[in-house]
């Protein structure tokens, strides 16, 4: 007991002494069946948590107390206590969960189940499954509009973004995008949804009111064949000015001017970059690089890669404590 | 509460479909040959529904998408018996189906293609790997989702050369298709700098593939057949007829790996392929068909998905419109191979990565790193545009 108290005191002191930008990032390692915990002050892995099979989608609960990680091959979402950094619970997600989104209050979780073409609705407090919404083939990307009224789900083989009314839980519109849509991201002002198409090699910009594709972001990297450019993860700065788009086996992050939808810069990161997350102060962007088994750290203002951190095998998703 | 919500979701779905007008019907025919061929390995014995099982899954996938676009896909199957006229069966299918997936021998396919040309039916060759169907005998109304022998041979050859196994002992069966595969392998060796140190022919003297105590005999025959060979790195077998290939691994006189028709085999697809999201489709396939997915299943799946992709992009079931779109420059299809697949516009062959498999695992995927091309690295597999003899008509 005494010892615990001492440890507590010491870590408390350490926290107080740490610079302001110290955050904790959680990275799901698809092949290792682990989650790596990264301290953004020292840029080191401070813990590796054993989780279920094939961890992919990962996010914090709104209160910042728990990390949820979809472990697809175990057909569940595991809950990690952010304090003890160990798995404490699991959610009834439906088969093969991959990505999920939660409402603003953090009460309802929407999970994409790749194996049975559904989105599962879960009550987070009661840990109960509320129902399913039928969508296209291989649902993947999930996001909720800033006003909480619309859920967007992308289906990889149907090649659509499904717009779902979160109150009625009905599909209100289906927007066709390029092949294998992987990820959807709203602009913070709600005026646009950006959807990445991995095989199509583009990002579609959708007007969420008219449900129409109003523009496309395209990529061209000299010396690289077109097929290698496979956009997946998207991160947009809070001022909606700059988007960072992970280009998969092109091993680059595209920096995009949101207003003109043009790429201004390509940043070389690790191999097969999938997903990205900002630190809450937006000073840094972290990317998961699957094939090189590492995480790249980008200085957002300087638009430069400043650090690489080794994590587990095939890092996939990333979440940073709020 | 939970029940009430679930009910609401159910109602929502019902209401949406009740509002919809009659869906656009898109008929897909499947034309194959009755009966299955016999393989040396019991494990590899094709199922009765080999091929069409893949088409069936793609129809389901297309219909899941179709319900958002008010399109409905149907599948109609015909099997030709020995001595039956393929044209008659094809014409009957074409009455109600604008698209036909064919798993036919080359000659039958050509007859069908020519008979249906004026009708505007679009054919997908999902089964025949013959080069001539994409070269001198190419047709403007036939799209090929099956790879060619040269594509398969090049995929294997690139890997063997990358592995620095460049001295090949080539063993060829005595049937025509074995010789055609051997031709492709010789071309590959010449292109990629491998050396065929010797060729041997394995005569098919008849005999049953299933016997009691067969193993004892094979164990004596194969070492003898492969002895006294010049120094070589890998034995490459050309045995499409399933006469001897599968007997070679572990039984060669010299301890050497086997590739080609046995050992390390080039295929468009394999039940072990789980990369690039393929696991989802493999799961769907097993759930629907209660068996694992073969290369032929995949070639048929891809053909039906190409139709679905084009009908959703054009928002139309019109055969002419859909055909033009598939043949056009903007067409591509995703087929769980890590890259978009497109058509070679000069002969309507689908470009595709080829898997190298050993029966349990995907060992590698070609094109291999370092085999470069000015247009698409996928065109390092098979005959390229400048070599093509195809004039589409």
Automatic annotation (TrEMBL), chain B:
It comes from the Bacteria. The keyword Transport applies. Residues 1-20 form the signal peptide. GO terms for biological process: amino acid transport. InterPro entries: ABC_transptr_sub-bd_PQQ, BCAA_transport, Leu-bd, Peripla_BP_I. CDD domains: PBP1_ABC_transporter_LIVBP-like. SUPFAM superfamilies: Periplasmic binding protein-like I (SSF53822). Keywords: Amino-acid transport, Signal, Transport. Pfam families: Peripla_BP_6 (PF13458). Residues 46-202 form the Leucine-binding protein domain. NCBIfam families: PQQ_ABC_bind. Belongs to the leucine-binding protein family. PANTHER family: LEUCINE-SPECIFIC-BINDING PROTEIN, PERIPLASMIC BINDING PROTEIN OF ABC TRANSPORTER FOR NATURAL AMINO ACIDS. This is ABC transporter substrate-binding protein. The lineage of its organism: Bacteria, Pseudomonadati, Pseudomonadota, Alphaproteobacteria, Hyphomicrobiales.
């Amino acid at each position: 007991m005494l010892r615990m108290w001492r440890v507590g005191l010491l870590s408390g002191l350490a926290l107080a002494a740490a610079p302001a930008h110290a955050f904790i990032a959680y990275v799901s390692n698809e092949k290792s069946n682990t989650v790596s915990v990264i301290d953004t002050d020292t840029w080191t892995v401070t813990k590796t948590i054993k989780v279920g099979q094939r961890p992919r989608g990962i996010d914090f609960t709104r209160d910042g107390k728990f990390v949820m990680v979809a472990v697809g091959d175990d057909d569940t979402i595991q809950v990690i206590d952010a304090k003890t950094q160990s798995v404490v619970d699991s959610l009834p997600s439906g088969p093969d969960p991959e990505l999920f989104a939660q409402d603003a209050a953090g009460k309802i979780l929407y999970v994409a189940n790749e194996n049975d073409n559904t989105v599962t609705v879960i009550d987070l407090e009661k840990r109960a499954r509320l129902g399913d919404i039928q969508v296209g083939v291989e649902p993947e990307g999930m996001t909720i509009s800033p006003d909480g009224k619309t859920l967007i789900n992308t289906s990889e083989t149907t090649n659509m973004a499904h717009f779902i009314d979160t109150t009625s839980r009905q599909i209100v519109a289906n927007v066709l995008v390029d092949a294998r849509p992987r990820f959807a991201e709203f602009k913070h002002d709600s005026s646009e949804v950006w959807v990445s198409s991995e095989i199509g090699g583009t990002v579609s910009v959708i007007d969420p009111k008219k449900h129409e594709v109003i523009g496309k972001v395209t990529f061209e990297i000299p010396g690289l064949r077109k097929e290698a450019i496979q956009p997946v993860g998207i991160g947009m700065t809070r001022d909606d000015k700059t988007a960072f788009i992970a280009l998969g086996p092109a091993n680059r992050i595209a920096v995009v001017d949101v207003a003109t939808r043009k790429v201004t810069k390509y940043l070389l990161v690790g191999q097969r970059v999938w997903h990205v997350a900002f630190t809450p102060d937006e000073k840094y962007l972290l990317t998961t690089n699957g094939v090189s088994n590492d995480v790249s750290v980008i200085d957002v203002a300087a638009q430069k890669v400043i650090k690489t951190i080794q994590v587990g095998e095939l890092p996939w998703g990333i979440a940073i404590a709020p | 509460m939970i029940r009430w919500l679930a009910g609401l979701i159910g109602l929502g779905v019902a209401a949406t479909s009740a509002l919809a007008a009659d869906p656009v019907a898109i008929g897909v025919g499947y034309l194959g040959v009755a009966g299955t061929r016999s393989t040396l390995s019991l494990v590899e014995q094709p199922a009765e529904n080999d091929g069409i099982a893949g088409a069936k899954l793609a129809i389901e996938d297309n219909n899941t998408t179709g319900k958002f676009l008010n399109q409905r896909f149907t599948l109609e199957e015909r099997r030709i018996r020995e001595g039956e006229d393929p044209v008659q069966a094809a014409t009957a299918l074409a009455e109600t189906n604008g698209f036909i997936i064919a798993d036919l021998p080359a000659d039958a396919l050509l007859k069908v293609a020519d008979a249906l040309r004026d009708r505007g039916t679009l054919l997908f060759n999902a089964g025949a790997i013959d080069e001539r169907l994409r070269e001198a005998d190419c047709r403007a109304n036939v799209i090929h989702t099956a790879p060619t022998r040269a594509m398969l041979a090049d995929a294997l050859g690139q890997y063997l050369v990358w592995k620095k196994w460049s001295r090949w002992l080539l063993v060829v069966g005595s049937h025509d298709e074995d010789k055609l595969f051997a031709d492709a392998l010789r071309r590959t060796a010449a292109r990629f700098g491998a050396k065929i140190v010797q060729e041997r022919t394995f005569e098919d003297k008849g005999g049953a593939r299933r016997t009691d105590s067969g193993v004892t005999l094979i164990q004596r025959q194969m070492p003898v057949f492969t002895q006294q060979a010049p120094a070589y790195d890998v034995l490459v077998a050309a045995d499409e007829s399933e006469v001897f290939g599968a007997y070679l691994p572990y039984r060669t006189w010299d301890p050497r790996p086997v590739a080609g028709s046995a050992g390390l085999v080039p295929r468009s697809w394999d039940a072990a392929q789980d990369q690039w999201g393929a696991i989802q489709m493999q799961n769907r396939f097993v759930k629907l068909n209660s068996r694992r997915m073969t290369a032929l299943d995949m070639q048929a799946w891809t053909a039906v998905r190409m139709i679905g992709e084009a009908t959703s992009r054009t928002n139309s079931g019109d055969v002419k419109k859909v055909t033009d779109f598939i043949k056009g420059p903007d067409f591509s299809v995703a087929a769980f191979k890590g890259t978009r697949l497109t058509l070679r516009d000069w002969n309507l062959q689908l470009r595709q990565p080829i898997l190298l498999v050993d029966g349990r695992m995907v060992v590698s995927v070609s094109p291999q790193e370092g085999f470069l091309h000015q247009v698409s690295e996928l065109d390092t597999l098979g005959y390229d545009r400048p070599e093509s003899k195809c004039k589409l008509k």
